[in-house]
UniProtKB/TrEMBL annotation:
<feature type="transmembrane region" description="Helical">
    <location>
        <begin position="46"/>
        <end position="67"/>
    </location>
</feature>
<keyword id="KW-0472">Membrane</keyword>
<protein>
    <recommendedName>
        <fullName>PH domain-containing protein</fullName>
    </recommendedName>
</protein>
<keyword id="KW-1133">Transmembrane helix</keyword>
<feature type="transmembrane region" description="Helical">
    <location>
        <begin position="12"/>
        <end position="34"/>
    </location>
</feature>
<keyword id="KW-0812">Transmembrane</keyword>
Amino acid sequence: MSDKSVFTEKQYLGREFIPLTIRLVLAMFCFAAYFFTDERERNGDLLVVVGFAIIIISIIMGFLLHFRTRVENKSVMLDGLWTTKLVKIDLNGIVKVEKGTYSRYLFNNPVYNLHTKGTIRFFTSGNEAIHLTDRDGLLYIIGSKHPNEFLRAIREEMKK
């Protein structure tokens, strides 16, 4: 068994379009409110500080890794942030693999190893996901920016 990954994907917290847009609109609102305050009061200066803080936090979040997905050695491994544990899904126990949508909602929060109603979810951004069903009926939903490559890698590993 080789340790070479067939598929690797990194998903970052701050790179999703909609939350990034919301943060930038809030920063623009702070700068606009500062511009229209009279006599540049002390409270008005606070608006500039908050606006720059939002922009700096957005830049930092762009480099903050949420989780990494790897397909290797007949398993899917999901490795998250600092305190999260490595999740290893054995592909020998998977009975069905399909590509689908992550959720029908427009806004989805990033999640890692969220257990709800017989599903385990891993998601940062995008609309599409890979649905893995194991022998016990447990559904793993793993969001991906590259679902076609991810699906191909999983099927390739399952054939070995």
